[in-house]
Amino acid sequence: MNITKILSDEHQTILKVIDAVLKECNEIENGKVLEIGFFQKTIDFIKNYADKFHHAKEEDILFKAMLENIENLHCNPIPVMLHEHDEGRKYVKGMDDGLTNSDTRQILENARGYCFLLQQHIYKEDNVLYPMAEEALSDEQKDLVNQRYQKIESELNKEMKMVDLKFM
Ligand SMILES: [Fe+2]
Ligand SMILES: [Fe+2]
């Protein structure tokens, strides 16, 4: 039984958006006119998909299940993961503020900050945290985690259909 493939698959979607955002930032720096709509959609995607949909599963379900099995973990990387989620939220706020202030530098700085943070965060989860979770939990516990994912997904799915994933 597997409880992290679904999350790794979501990472791939997030990484695709990150690539598009980094490309857009470079083009703007090379003279392309900044399109407010692109960054509004980026913020909308991050808030609804990356944070609400994906991070909710990590924070409310997977991380909690791991902490219940703390004796099976050789170290506790969860505080660092939670801290990075919060850092990500600060960058999103910075992007939002940049749009309000029509400040290109502020938008680009925070967009790039978010992208670089998430790239390394995702790498750590895929290669360290998720394998630890697969090892630490029993099949029974994994079954429960999967049930909880399904519950949260059915609650959020309607909203998620409205998130525009094709803007990049
Ligand atoms: Fe995470
Ligand atoms: Fe993640």
Structural overview:
The chain is an all-alpha fold. The protein has a single domain (5-160), classed as Up-down Bundle (Four Helix Bundle (Hemerythrin (Met), subunit A)), CATH 1.20.120.520. The chain is 81% helix and 0% strand. It has helices at residues 5-29, 36-68, 78-100, 104-136, 139-160. The longest helix is centred in the first third of the chain and has 33 residues, at 36-68. The protein is elongated, with a radius of gyration of 17 Å. 26% of the residues are buried. The mean pLDDT is 94. It binds fe (ii) ion (FE2) (2 copies).
Query: Which CATH-level-2 architecture?
Result: Up-down Bundle
Largest sheet: none
Q: Class in CATH?
A: Mainly Alpha
The CATH topology corresponds to Four Helix Bundle (Hemerythrin (Met), subunit A)
Which parts are unreliable, with pLDDT below 50 for 5 consecutive residues or more? none
Number of domains: 1
The secondary-structure class comes to mainly alpha
The separation of the N and C termini measures 34 Å
Residues in helices, as a percent range: over 70%
By DSSP, the count of extended strands is 0
Unique ligands: fe (ii) ion
Instruction: State the helix count.
Output: 5
The general outline is elongated
Summarize the entry for a quick read.
By secondary structure, the chain is mainly α. It contains 5 helices and no strands. The mean pLDDT is 94.
